[in-house]
Amino acid sequence: MTMGTPGTEPTSWNGRLFMGTGTLLYGGPVRATALHAHHAFQVMVSLGSPLHLRGPRQDSAVQCQAAVIPPDALHEVTAPSPSVLLLYLDPDGLVGRRLRRELGPLVETSDWLRAGRTLWTRTPRAVPETWAQARPLAQSFVDALASPESRPQVIHPAVQRAVRFVAANLEGDIRLGAVAEHAEISPGRLTHLLPQHVGLPLRPYVAWLRLQRAVARLREGATLTESAHHAGFTDGAHLTRIFRRMFGIRPSDVMGRAEWVLPTPTDDDALAK
Question: Which residues form the signal peptide (predicted)?
Fold first, then answer.
């Protein structure tokens, strides 16, 4: 779920959250929100009663079973719904670029609903409970919206070195030149290879890894500041700002309310590619 503009009460997240690299999936009840926006694509699918959705240029809400909200688009949910799936997708990664290319401009609320119609036949009966259930569901939504693209089956050795270096240095200042030097490849070549293999350019890739690490520490009972420092954010305010920009909510709005499901070391940590 998403929260409203500053000064309004945040809606409660008491469902289940699956967080992967470049993707976040929420399943559970949705309450009404104020007008708000977030940087991620948001795929909204109701598992029961229709969603009530209003755009910034509408006097009244429209009802729908599914919709695709484009990045940074103002919108509000005007009535609660008992069981909804919300899939957030980084707009700067391969999946986000696929959606931009194939869905075209999503300017009006009618465009959001038109894009969502392709998801009706892929709606599950219930909210997923495990990572193994969430991943194919998220992937099926993405594939319904944009034609699948082939990804390299074997990760380039330089990308493997870069990924290990980034994971080991999240608490520090990660720059392209340093990562490329450790990966034994030119910065330009790494810039080209990284999205092909991990789905995101370096900067958003680092941001998502830091968000995952911060969430893991918050789940363990660490404070916001401790979690932020552990994940490489300057402070708790920095973590909150990045989290809110991507999802429209603060970490404190969901911790202690939602059940978080994170990938294990043996899971593919991308919910959708």
Answer: none
Locate CATH 2.60.120.10 in the chain: 16-145
Q: Which two tokens stand for residue 83?
A: 């069981």
Distance CA 132, CA 166 (A): 26
CATH architecture of the region 157-247: Orthogonal Bundle (1.10)
C-alpha distances in Å from residue 39, one per residue of 71, 129, 204: 5, 26, 12
Domain with CATH 1.10.10.60 in the chain: 157-247
Model confidence pLDDT, tens digit, residues 240-270: 999 988 988 888 888 878 888 888 777 777 7
Q: Which CATH number fits domain 16-145: 1.10.3720.10, 2.60.120.10, 2.60.40.1270, 3.30.460.80?
A: 2.60.120.10
Beta bridge partners of 237: none
Residue 235: count of CB within 10 angstroms of its CB: 12
Own/partner contacts of 160-168, CB < 8 Å, gap of 24 or more, are: 162/190, 162/194, 163/198, 166/202, 166/205, 166/206, 166/209, 167/209
pLDDT one-digit tens code per residue, 128-167: 999 999 999 999 999 999 887 766 668 899 999 999 999 9
* Cα–Cα distance, 69 to 262 (Å, whole number): 24
The number of beta carbons lying within 10 Å of the beta carbon of residue 91 is 20
